[in-house]
Design goal:
Blueprint lengths: L4 E5 L20 E2 L2 E2 H11 L4 E6 L4 H7 L4 H6 L4 H16 L1 E6 L5 H7 L8 E6 L2 E4 L4 H12 L2 E7 L6 E8 L2 E7 L8 E10 L18 H6 L5 E5 L3 E4 L3 H14 L4 H11 L3
Parallel strand pairs: 1-4, 1-6, 4-5, 8-12
Antiparallel strand pairs: 2-3, 6-11, 7-13, 8-11, 9-10
Helix pairs in contact: 8-9
Length: 278
């Protein structure tokens, strides 16, 4: 069965980015010249996904709807400005070829976000992406998971290697690339592989809700996955990764994509060299 749907969880308040997130939601903050969320939607599109289900809050739903639609008035005003129209080409291509569904988050946590979309995910296999994770590679990260699922028909979780481990989300293996459990950081971590915010799941994930314990008042998806009585395969993703849920990750992403932009590469590189001489 082809995976056609992807849930992207962006229902949080973005409090780490206050005060700007009083008025602009975190996923709409720009990575050079596109909102951060567009890079995830583009990854899903390049991975063969046909429908995005955004799990949202009241605050960001209208911003998202306005961006992920064809703006005929804007196109009309730019009809004699081909260089400006070219800037919209990539966005409009994706908007024309994907369906966008918006669901309000009603339960806290990443599992809570996914559970809010339950009605749209009946008896099918689907992808999930965390809204804070951007990756860069010649093969999109989500595509790697989909290819592994097509080969094995297993449920899939993405992980990446980290030298500095976070407090939680560390992968413990049974054997090879089979998940045993998700653990908190301790003196002897079972691996240096941490959850990387991309999953291939089935609607069976909704059956474990009553078995799941809260962590800091939230229901978390990785721990729900460990309750499934199925083999979970880990795809270790070596893509360049940016955690744009943190200020430093967001800045790194802007610097990286700025340097990749041919229109600003030289000037930005010269500026970085100038201010880092000392």
């Amino acid at each position: 069965m082809k995976i056609k749907k992807c849930v992207i969880t962006i229902g949080g308040l973005g409090t780490r980015f206050l005060p700007i997130t009083k008025s602009v939601t975190k996923e709409m903050l720009p990575i050079v010249d596109v909102p951060a969320i567009f890079l995830q939607v583009k990854e899903a599109y390049l991975s063969g996904i046909k429908e995005i289900i955004f799990v949202v809050s009241k605050k960001n739903i209208n911003l998202l709807k306005n961006f992920f639609k064809i703006d005929n008035e804007l196109l009309k005003s730019l009809k004699n400005k081909p260089e400006k129209l070219a800037l919209l080409k990539e966005v409009d291509e994706i908007v024309k070829n994907m369906k966008f569904t918006y669901v309000m988050q009603t339960i806290k946590g990443t599992y809570g976000a996914l559970y809010s979309a339950k009605a749209y995910l009946k008896n099918e296999t689907f992808a999930v992406m965390y809204g804070d994770d951007i990756s860069v590679d010649s093969i999109p990260s989500l595509k790697k998971l989909i290819l592994e699922h097509e080969k094995t028909n297993a449920l899939i979780m993405s992980a990446r290697k980290e030298s500095e481990l976070p407090k939680y989300g560390i992968v413990k293996y049974k054997k090879d690339n089979i998940l045993d459990e998700i653990v908190y950081k301790n003196n002897t971590p079972p691996s240096h592989d941490v959850i990387s915010g991309r999953f291939i799941l089935t609607s069976d994930i909704f059956k474990v809700k009553n078995l799941l314990k809260e962590h800091d008042g939230e229901l978390q998806l990785p721990y729900a996955i460990t309750l499934l009585k199925k083999e979970i395969r880990i795809v270790l993703d070596n893509s360049l990764h940016f955690d744009i849920g943190s200020k430093i990750g967001f800045l790194k992403a802007n610097i990286y994509f700025g340097l990749k932009n041919p229109n600003m590469n030289k000037e930005l590189k010269d500026f970085i060299n100038q201010i880092t001489k000392d």
